[in-house]
Amino acid sequence: MMTKHALPTWRPSAWGKALTSSGDWQLALHEEIVTLTIGGVASATSVEDFHSVTVTRGLFWSQIELQVGERVSRLRGIRSKDAAAFEYAFAASRQSVHIAEFDAAAHQATLWLNGFTAALTEHMQTKGWITAEFSTEWAARKIAVGFSHLIDDKALHPHIAVQPVDIVNTIARWAEDVHDVVARENQNYLEAEAEDCREFFDNIEASPLTPEQTRAVICFDNRMLVVAAAGSGKTSTMVAKAGYALHRNLIPADKILMLAFNSAAAKQLQQRTRDRLSPLGLNAEQVVARTFHAFGLDVIGQATGKKPSLAPWLEGGKDIEQLGLIVDRLRATDVMFRSEWDFFRAVLARDYPDDDGTKGNASEGFQTSRGETVKSAGERMIADWLFFNGVDYIYEKRYEIETVDAEHAQYRPDFYYPAINAYHEHWAIDAEGLSPFDGYLESVAWKRKIHHANGTTLLETTMSELWSGRDLTRLGAELTQRGISLQPDADRLAVGQKPVENALLLGTFRSFLIHVKSNCLTDEQLSVRLAELAHGPVRYRDASFLRLFAAIRREWNEKLSADDCIDFEDMLTLSAQHLEDGDWDSPYDLVMVDEFQDASFARARLARALVATPGRYLFAVGDDWQSINRFAGADVSVMTGFEGWFGPSDIMRLERTFRFSQSIADVSSAFVMQNPVQIAKSVVSSTAEYAPTVGIMTVEADNAVAAAIRHRLTTLHSHVASGAIPSVPGRKLSVLVLGRYRHQSSYLDGCKHLRDLLDISFMTIHASKGGEADYIVIPGLVSGKWGFPSIIPNDPVLRLAMPAAEEFPKAEERRLFYVALTRARRSVLLVTIDKRESRFVMELIRDHGVVRTNAIGEVLPSIVCPRCGRGFMIERTSKRGPFLGCRRYPRCKTALSLDGSPSVPVVKPVVGYRKPFTPYRRNR
User: Are 546 and 800 in contact (CB under 8 A)?
Assistant: First the structure.
């Protein structure tokens, strides 16, 4: 019960002078108001508004200092007993105000506590699990009461000590955090539900749910992400979640929506739900399982009253065909497009370093399309452009006049054009006219002076203008003006390599289009991203790509409009837009998303819009370690940044795998977690070991791979037949050969005679996700073209169209390899070729001690070079005796000394060396 407190009044018995004014002052305190009058002008201030009141006492006279905000008034000429009286009255007045504030806040706090307790009880009785939505709302209400700081005010402790029982109880419970209360109640609820529903959890699937699966099912927070390891039973968890919602009458069946990424997965999810729930008497028929695209199409139809049609040329690879027709049409009708497309395909499409790093580096030079080695990336770009356009040139031809003197060697300009007797220098100069190299500008001035003095023609380009895209255009105009006819030809063969195949290049443009449409990016926004993300040599390439893409996208959208159709990305973005705009109110309260690691920006946006209304639930299940569909629009950052998309979330893990052994779990987990962006989890196996679980087989050449695989499978067949390897009751042992590319299926030729005891099949790794086999064979673990990791799919230009670029090298290829490893129940055999080993193979040997053997099983020495990590150390001999040298010599000159047993050498580093080079030319 609040009471009115008597507030003291104080008036001075003397007048004095104000230090802040030339007039007299008077100070008065009545109830909680301090009135200061200076020169006849009065100002009234509540005691609560004072920052400080300081009394400085003297023997007879004292000073009072009043501070309100930044304003300070110092009053003197006050008798000390009056100053002391004012100080006491001011403190008593402020204390009275605080007591009144406390009593009011205590009353509100008691009301809040009673309301919170009642709401908590009702929520648990009707809905069970206490959601983040509930706790966040009540925590905000608690903060609004403003009671905590009053409880902590020591000056109020005497008053608090005499409070009635209800207030004392409120104070005692107030210190406990709302979220801590909710966490405790949810834990109690979890334990009670796990016991009460034990029969349900034991029978909803073929095997009883694990404790971590049970927790994921019982937890009914508004936003949930379940990070599920490979083989951990994520589908079982989804089905059990839907069944639990029905079993406990939490969500009606017709308000549960399951979203999958393709029609096969949606059908499987629908059938699995019916098969598991119907025998338990649950209404599984009304639970809806759809693909994102099919559901999006329905949303558009419901929101607009007109269900659109999907373009018939989008499925079965016909989208790439349509893109090819668009490019052909643009090449036929637009001369500028044709020239840029042909140059991009012939030169720029392969301009990023490949898996071997053979594109060149500063110390070893840069190889051009014509096969010569130049000294900088800029020179290579110019040389490739000249070759593409049929311009005859000589690289670093000796200048026609001798220039040798005490300070200068003979001058050799970068390029010479014999048809017009002109020289060309490419300068390492930036937009400000500066160079990063000492003495470089003096060298430029000297060379210009040489040409001027001898009357020779000098054409010039700069690093800055080249990467901006302007210099090649200007160079072409100058050459044309001087009599050289440019004759572009995309089919001119490079040394050892051809222009990128149209199908591969079209695939990159298709992936880029998917991401751009999914992320609703305009040409202007892409240009901004180009300026922010593309620098140096790649800027010209990426700018060229965007110019081509703008024309292709325009034609693509015009084709859709002409056919009165939409594409897959439109299905998602338009449906999400309708939901966000309130054009259709979704009837679903529980939205469950399978394979969430494959979510795109558009899918995440659609899922978010579906649960935007308070009281709805999102349950997403996936494994970011298995995000391998970037080419189809998947963006792993949607999962790794889940809370950024959907707000505060309960993130759980399914870490127990029922598929593969602990050794496979350890190797594969450590391998994929080299990328620090991946969500950490500790995978624990419940499966027996069948050694060797992970092995590497090296063959001499590609034409020996099929025979080596056949030999290993024949050995496996013999061991199964003899009983040395146990079979599985009721079925054959399965062997799945997983290829990075479809053409690798030919490695199974000649294995038909083994099928009586072995179920042998081939799949691409992408198609295998969700599958498993007893034995996995992964051929093609080599570097270079058709290698693994591939140098083709993850064109870095995709970073311009994605919300978050992946900075870790070969990040998706690493996840793809993880998927391949984790298809195995018993064992994985990795097949590589001598001297062409994949970097993934080298990493497994170096970091995990995986044993390498030849085709007949003999162990091979495998010390990985500690410097380059790309070659094995082999024994060599020098004048100082035997040592270990990198097999990649002279590319890598690492050397190690031998010290100990030849079979298990103990190695110590010795100093290597590098070939000298001209440093100022490397970035030109």
Answer: yes
Q: Residue 333 is which amino acid?
A: T
Cβ atoms of residues 578 and 299 within 8 Å: yes
DSSP per-residue letters across 53-79: EEEE--SSEEEEEEEETTEEEEEEEEE
Are 693 and 827 in contact by the 8 Å Cβ rule? The answer is yes
Nearest to 330 by CA among 559, 498, 563, 561: 559
Phi, psi (5° rounding) for residue 523?
A: -60, -35
Which residues does residue 223 pair with via DSSP β-bridges, in sequence order?
618
Residue 890: cis peptide before it, omega within 30 degrees of 0: yes
**What letters, b where the CB count within 10 A reaches 16 and e where it falls short, cover 476-500?**
bebbeeeebebebebebebeeeebb
> Helix, strand or coil for residue 388?
helix
Torsion of CA 822, 824, 825, 829, to 10 degrees: -130
> What is residue 497's DSSP assignment?
B
3-state helix, strand, coil in the chain (%, to 5): 45, 20, 35
Q: What is the pLDDT of residue 899?
A: 62
Pairing label, strands 394-395, 907-910: unpaired
The answer to whether the CB of 758 falls within 8 A of the CB of 826 is no
From 64, 87, 73, select the one nearest 10 (Cα to Cα).
87
State the DSSP string of 707-757: HHHHHHHHHHHHHHHHTSS--BTTBPEEEEEEESSGGGGGGGTT-GGGTTT
Q: What is the 3-state secondary structure (H, E, C) of 190-213?
A: HHHHHHHCHHHHHHCCCCCCCHHH
Token pair 């200068």 is at which residue? 408
Read off the pLDDT of residues 274-310 as tens digits, 9 standing for 90 and up: 999 999 999 999 999 999 999 999 999 999 999 999 9
Q: Where are the beta strands (DSSP E) in 519-655?
A: 590-593, 617-622, 650-654
- Check if the beta carbon of residue 244 is closer than 8 Å to that of residue 218: yes
CA distances 821 to 110, 230, 668, 726, Å, are 59, 10, 7, 21
| Residue-wise pLDDT tens digits, 307-324 | 999 999 998 779 999 999
Give pLDDT, residue 532.
84
**Amino acid identity of 478?**
E
Q: What pLDDT is attached to residue 848?
A: 93
Residue type, 209: L
Q: Do 571 and 293 touch, CB atoms closer than 8 A?
A: yes
The position carrying tokens 């009394």 is 55
Q: Are strands 656-657 and 758-764 parallel, antiparallel or unpaired?
A: unpaired
Return the half-sphere exposure (C-beta side, CA atoms, 13 A cut-off) of residue 427. 25
Q: Report phi then psi at 224, rounded to 5.
A: -130, 135
User: Which H helix or E strand runs over 778?
Assistant: strand 773-778
Backbone angles phi, psi at 589, to 5 degrees: -95, -30
- The Cα 36–Cα 72 span in angstroms is 12
Q: What is the DSSP string of 575-612?
A: HHHHHHTTSS----SEEEESSGGG--HHHHHHHHHHT-
- Calculate ∠ Cα 144-147-153, nearest 5°: 140
* CA proximity to 227, closest of 672, 622, 598, 673: 622
Below-70 pLDDT ranges, the chain:
1-23, 350-364, 492-500, 536-537, 792-794, 803-805, 899-924
- Give Cα separations from 623 to 620, 885, 890 (angstroms): 10, 41, 42
* Tokens linked to 177: 């955090």
Beta-bridge partners for 61: 79
Residues constituting the chain:
924
- Rounded to an integer, what distance in angstroms lies between the CA atom of residue 129 and that of residue 736? 43
Maximum CA pair distance of the chain? Answer: 118
Measured in degrees and rounded to the nearest 5, phi and psi for residue 296 equal -60, -40
Output the pTM of the full model.
Answer: 0.78
- CA torsion sign for 859, 861, 866, 869 is negative
Structure tokens at 29: 């305190």
